[in-house]
Amino acid sequence: MISLKGKLNIIDNTGALLAECVNVLKHKINHGWGTVGDEIVVVVQQARPISATALASSTAIKVRRGDVRRAVIVRTRKPVRRPDGRWVRFDDNAAVLLNNKHEMLGTRISGVVSADLRLKGWGKIVSLAPKVI
Amino acid sequence: MVKLEIDTFSGYKIYPSKGKLFVRGDGKIFRFSTSKTESLTHQRKNPRKIAWTQVFRRMHKKGITEEIAKKRARRTVKHQRGIVGADIATILARRGQTTEARESARKAAIDKAKAAKKAKEGTKEKKTAPRTTTSAPKVSKQQMKGGKGR
């Protein structure tokens, strides 16, 4: 249940560490609550310092503090129900940064992601993740 | 057939649509059948110390007497075998010997040996009389061995 002001860990290698949710983008109705597999708009609160080589190049991804980006939620503390009746809960809230075309900004993911992503159409993220539960 | 999970804390079976699955930050999975086990795990309780868990029961060997009784039935029967130099008959005979029998046997052997020795000495004296005894010069062992020259 991520909504305004909700903090998420960014688990890809874009350089962002912590992001704060600003808006939850659901198809028709904006409920306000985002869960695993939902796209959200985030503001980057903490980011890793960008190396000099990255600064010089124009193609490298530069994510700075205060950037407004899109992201997809991959883990939530709030339990999510699986079709077989199981409830799955993670230890933290996490997301992966996206660009406007719903493609990942980073190239690698660290940690676990929820398998519910596959059902919502984020197969690419699932394939990149080291562990899917 | 759906796979039955077991609770990571108590060891109970988790039937479908029951309980929760918790994924910790490091990726370790915990399955809880009830909020009781969930709560205790978050309190960092050790299931080995909680008396109603399967871990505890197994550790303190509670309620598994049937299993043990079954296992006892299997025991290998030892067969006495003869070895090279002493076939099984001699082994058994030796084992059955009483101390008195052993003593008397020993004594008889000693007497026999003494008699044999005396007889030998008798024949030896006759033999050595005509022969001149040549004694080797007395050389110390060290010299014989070719010891180090100081």
TrEMBL record, chain A:
Stated role: Component of the mitochondrial ribosome (mitoribosome), a dedicated translation machinery responsible for the synthesis of mitochondrial genome-encoded proteins, including at least some of the essential transmembrane subunits of the mitochondrial respiratory chain. The mitoribosomes are attached to the mitochondrial inner membrane and translation products are cotranslationally integrated into the membrane.
Family, similarity comment: Belongs to the universal ribosomal protein uL14 family.
Organism: Exidia glandulosa HHB12029
Keyword Lipid metabolism found: no
Domain of life: Eukaryota
Family annotation (InterPro entries): Ribosomal_uL14, Ribosomal_uL14_bac-type, Ribosomal_uL14_CS, Ribosomal_uL14_sf
Protein name (database record): Large ribosomal subunit protein uL14m
Molecular function terms, GO-annotated: large ribosomal subunit rRNA binding; structural constituent of ribosome
Keyword field: Ribonucleoprotein, Ribosomal protein
One term under GO cellular component: mitochondrial large ribosomal subunit
Biological processes, Gene Ontology terms: translation
UniProtKB/TrEMBL annotation, chain B:
Residue ranges occupied by any Large ribosomal subunit protein eL24-related N-terminal domain in the UniProt entry: 3-67
Record's GO cellular component terms: cytosolic large ribosomal subunit
GO molecular function: mRNA binding; structural constituent of ribosome
GO biological process: cytoplasmic translation
Family matches, as CDD domains: Ribosomal_L24e_L24 (cd00472)
Annotated region described as Disordered, given as residue ranges: 94-150
SUPFAM superfamilies: Glucocorticoid receptor-like (DNA-binding domain) (SSF57716)
UniProt keyword list: Ribonucleoprotein, Ribosomal protein
Bias type Basic and acidic residues, positions: 100-128
Keyword Ribonucleoprotein: yes
Compositionally biased intervals (Polar residues): 130-143
Xref: InterPro entries: L24e/L24_sf, Ribosomal_eL24, Ribosomal_eL24-rel_N
Family membership noted in the UniProt record: Belongs to the eukaryotic ribosomal protein eL24 family.
Record protein name field: Large ribosomal subunit protein eL24-related N-terminal domain-containing protein
